[in-house]
């Protein structure tokens, strides 16, 4: 029995952060050995919100950093295929064909599309952003992925993929698997400023690649309970980002419970709570830093992984596109025209 395929990935907009880790990377590390795993470097998706030349010029560097982050977190390079989306033009062919299998009102109901436009400062939704879920369907179905790990932000996108796969199969025959979603059970990680989720663009993120001093500096500047002006004032734990991070990254549950009790009673200051968090985060990140150092010491490793993975993936996508065009009858139309032209040319030559 063949191993099921999994597709996952990120846009190459910079270093990954702890929000990425809890929302998707930890799940990928746990799953990637169970599946034939494809990791997309989704630079075409990046263009929906960042399409200036200077943004595009950063893609290769950001791609290397992104892959390095994922490997440092524990993904085995021998069990993962990394590939650059824009280096596989056939994905655009599928995107074009899939656009006719979904309606504009359906895409307008995808909540994250408007959220992405808002976060990018767009008053109106560009055509490419509205079609983001269709291109994502092309990404998933081009390698015939059967499972897709998702956070809550991406579930609605993948549901569009499932609808497109079913619609295509109904119209043209069984070509695509209808991918299953594997949901992450970790909630969104709030940013260090307490304002919405952690985000590179908002400057409220702790990067996976941050060194110990940087982590400590960011933690000591974190938002806490705004109503607590002194250490002897009882504080609120619920909704407090510092304790939200303790809950996720500090494995010493007894120590966290004691800090919460003292905080509620006004018997511990924010500085002590943050110092404990900084120490816990650095203990968590130390093994990741060690793996990163080994990866970066192997010159050319990450670049070669991307090149090899992209070439393998393109071969798979080419086969998928041929199968799709045959199922739809598109290859037959051109062949008929070509045969008629050939017959006419021969007839003219013998006349």
From TrEMBL:
Domain of life: Bacteria
Annotated GO biological process: tryptophanyl-tRNA aminoacylation
Keywords: Aminoacyl-tRNA synthetase, ATP-binding, Ligase, Nucleotide-binding, Protein biosynthesis
InterPro entries: aa-tRNA-synth_I_CS, aa-tRNA-synth_Ic, Rossmann-like_a/b/a_fold, Trp-tRNA-ligase, Trp-tRNA_synthetase
UniProt xrefs under PROSITE patterns: AA_TRNA_LIGASE_I (PS00178)
One Gene Ontology CC term in the entry: cytosol
Reaction(s) catalysed (UniProt annotation): tRNA(Trp) + L-tryptophan + ATP = L-tryptophyl-tRNA(Trp) + AMP + diphosphate + H(+)
A molecular function (GO) term: ATP binding
EC assignment: 6.1.1.2
Protein family: Belongs to the class-I aminoacyl-tRNA synthetase family.
The protein's name: Tryptophan--tRNA ligase
Organism: Micromonospora palomenae
Lineage: Bacteria, Bacillati, Actinomycetota, Actinomycetes, Micromonosporales
